[in-house]
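Quick start: read one record
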Amino acid sequence: MSTTDQTRYWHTIDSPVGRLLLGGDGERLTRIHFQDGPCPLRPAAHWQAAVRPFAAAIEQLAQYFAGQRRRFDLPLAPTGTEFQLRVWQALCAIPYGATLSYGELARRIGNPRASRAVGLANGANPLPVVVPCHRVIGANGALTGFGGGVPIKRALLALEGALPAELPYAANATR
């Protein structure tokens, strides 16, 4: 994982949760952005539209959405702080179909009092779906916050068979 933005290429794909913008440096995936939400990402002027750098990502995402892939095997280069990179690495250890609370994720990275910081790192995750921040839920099981919106988080968890039996009310559950 990287600490500097290396995005040079982009491509948009359709998925069951809406259009996804893929960004990369030609060899590694650097970002995935939900394009149908309130804040679509516009490729920077220096980015080039290209399909070839994303062939593996396109194939693996299609397999994931078809229920045929549980773990991604892609070269990644997300941009973030050292703390964010640790959180994102820990997210990759959450198994398909499982969920974890923000507090438990903070404990797993050795900082049990950092649940809010873990939540902020989740919100800054540049590679949702592949780095599965959707698998982190509130301590009470509530589906709180998600960059693509809680309905997309719910859809991803449903695809994985990981929805909590009863979903508690969350004040920000419509985002």
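The beta strands are 9-13, 20-24, 29-34, 48-49, 100-101, 136-137.
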